[in-house]
Design goal:
mainly alpha
């Protein structure tokens, strides 16, 4: 019960903090108190972080695509091995009686 209460409080706090208006990641009231130089530095930092995040997302998506491609190749190779094994069993060239269930039509 305590865990549920804690999670509910955490979610409510997250929702409330997400509603705070920000400019380049800085709360609006703090932004209004910044000098032009501080604002420019903040904008540059925000843009740099955004660029780095975009690069990370690109690298992650490329890795995921390569991993999926490799998994597809592996699955295809495994399926071909399994087809050959099954064919050999049905042709009497390998395996023992009971290795496979009977063919269903």
């Amino acid at each position: 019960m305590r865990t549920v209460y804690f999670l509910i409080c955490l979610i409510v706090l997250f929702i409330i903090s997400a509603c705070t208006p920000t400019i380049f990641g800085v709360p609006q009231d703090q932004w209004n108190q910044m000098s032009a130089e501080q604002r420019q530095t903040t904008i540059e930092g925000y843009n740099e972080r955004s660029r780095i995040q975009a690069q990370r997302r690109l690298v992650d998506s490329r890795r995921a695509a390569e991993k999926a491609r490799q998994a597809g190749i592996d699955a295809e190779l495994e399926a071909e091995r399994e087809r050959k094994r099954i064919s050999a069993i049905y042709d009497g060239r390998g395996g023992i009686n009971g290795d496979l269930p009977p063919k269903t039509f």
